[in-house]
Specification:
The chain is α+β, with helices and mostly antiparallel strands and 476 residues long. 22% of the residues lie in helices and 28% in strands. It has eleven helices and 21 strands. The longest helix has 23 residues. It starts with a strand and ends with a strand.
């Protein structure tokens, strides 16, 4: 896939790692150009604006489709989930009820990602610091739930969506800006839900059936009745809840074994009411594995469905795979190293081997400290996520994984594989000048030998230089 940037009559490749276009720069950096730009992503052309913060490094993940890669652990988990739903729901002819969509376009509108799902306008998940925006109206989907309304509008009532999602986050063993989700929806009519009790109803007699006034959609869980929605009867909610929990517990036992200890926890999601999380007891602690709930009827009405109700659930594939394969670092899923990939096979989807570490060499740790410009503070003109994205753009895949091989060419044209992780370890505000200082700790590791400090310094120097250029900071 070729990603290009057009600037009114010129064309520049986005593959350059160290030169950061203006739209990738923090607000701490001075503006140098106001030229209109166009960004080509996944076959679409988008005009960039002040909301554009997606980087070439993040765009390079589009089309990777790790969840479809043969013998990849994410593909194995995907197939286990799909096969379970194929078996759990069948029509009278014995064919699977659920349809599966695994390659939907990850570029969605703000309406798809937020508005259609009743996510309030002031919700934190909409912020630029949390999402990768192509422009003000488009972004890389933050969840596969973004496709619900379009699929329901197309007449689907039982479907699974699997694909990568994008969220701006820190760099460590449990966070990665691109990960994978499976999202499912099941809708039923009165005749189907109350097949054995035809006298019962889906909706309260007092409910008018009119679309809810968007101004009445409350943004906080403390204002929402988690027993049921005003439109639904209690009988309908309880029966739908019973079916949903029965199916999802079955999925959990299929994945983790029939003796897995589990519990349901009440929670809040803007797009379901009531809502739950399913947790399992693993290594002496409770871990959340999925979220689910009864779909908000306003969402169905937006899709043109008025006489059905349904449930939805979402699960992260990496979370399941890390547990089932005992993989310690989420970034390993992006490895192309044969030492990682050859450990897994699709020949027997129920024989899941435990991951064996592929690097035991010691790490090198470098700190990078700098003063922010005057009147700029953390989360007020500068976001740590901006720095993380800069490092990804400068160092490429080297920053994306721990214990994985990445080629890097030093000043002597020697190729050596390194990996690193980043964390913000200190913040300080000078009592006299009022300037803010940050310290990021970067941990480097070599795949095949002990890494020298001189080699690390070559990479570290490039990151420091790019930080000065992009954020107008002063290295300490």
């Amino acid at each position: 896939m070729l990603l290009t940037l057009r600037v009114r009559g010129t064309r520049a490749s986005l593959r350059t790692a160290c030169a950061l276009p203006q739209r990738f720069r923090s607000s701490a950096a001075p503006a140098k150009s106001s030229a209109a730009q166009e960004l080509n992503v996944n076959g679409g052309t988008y005009t960039t604006d002040s909301w554009t913060n997606v980087t070439p490094k993040i765009l390079s993940h589009l089309g990777a489709n790790k969840h479809l890669q043969k013998d990849h652990p994410l593909s194995i988990i995907r197939q286990r989930i799909v096969n379970y739903f194929y078996g759990a729901y069948r029509n009278q002819r014995g064919n699977p009820l659920f349809s599966v969509y695994e390659q939907l376009n990850p570029v969605v509108t703000v309406q798809q990602n937020f508005d259609n799902l009743l996510i309030p306008a002031d919700h934190v998940s909409r912020q630029k610091s949390d999402c990768y925006y192509v422009n003000r109206e488009h972004l890389l989907r933050a969840h596969t739930t973004a496709h619900q309304v379009e699929l329901i509008s197309g007449g689907l009532d039982n479907f699974l969506v699997v694909g990568e999602v994008y969220r701006r986050d820190e760099i460590d063993s449990t966070h990665y800006p691109v990960f994978h989700q499976a999202d499912a929806v099941r809708l039923v009519t009165k005749d189907k839900l109350f097949e054995r009790n035809p006298g019962l109803e889906l909706f309260e007699e007092t409910w008018s059936g009119q679309l809810a006034d968007p101004r009445l959609i409350l943004p906080s869980s403390k204002f929402m009745d988690q027993t049921k929605q005003p439109c639904h009867t209690l009988e309908a909610v309880k029966l739908m809840e019973h079916e949903m929990k029965h199916v999802l517990v079955g999925l959990t036992k299929d994945l983790f074994g029939p003796r897995i200890k589990y519990r349901w926890v009440d929670t809040y999601f803007p797009f379901t009411q009531p809502s739950w999380e399913l947790e399992i007891y693993f290594k002496d602690q409770w871990l959340e594995v999925l979220g689910c709930g009864i779909m908000r009827h306003e969402i169905l009405q937006k899709a043109g469905v008025h006489q059905s109700m349904g449930y939805a659930f979402g699960v992260g594939l990496e979370r399941l795979a890390m547990i089932l394969f005992d993989i310690p670092d989420i970034r390993l899923f992006w490895s192309n190293d044969s030492g990682f990939l050859t450990q897994f096979s699709e020949k027997d989807l129920h024989n899941l081997p435990k991951y064996k570490p592929i690097s035991h060499y010691p790490q090198c740790t470098n700190d990078l400290s700098f003063w922010l410009p005057d009147n700029v503070e953390v989360d007020a003109g500068f976001s740590p996520n901006d720095f993380y994205d800069l490092v990804r753009s400068v160092a490429g895949d080297m920053v994306e994984q721990v214990r994985e091989s990445f080629p890097f060419i030093d000043s002597h044209y020697r190729v050596f594989p390194i990996a690193l992780q980043i964390s913000l370890v200190d913040k300080f505000k000078h009592p006299k000048t009022g300037r803010s200082s940050l310290c990021f700790r970067i941990v480097y590791r070599h795949m095949e030998r002990t890494l020298t400090q001189a080699e690390v310094n070559e990479v570290h120097k490039q990151i420091a230089s790019a930080s000065v250029d992009s954020f107008n900071v002063q290295i300490r």
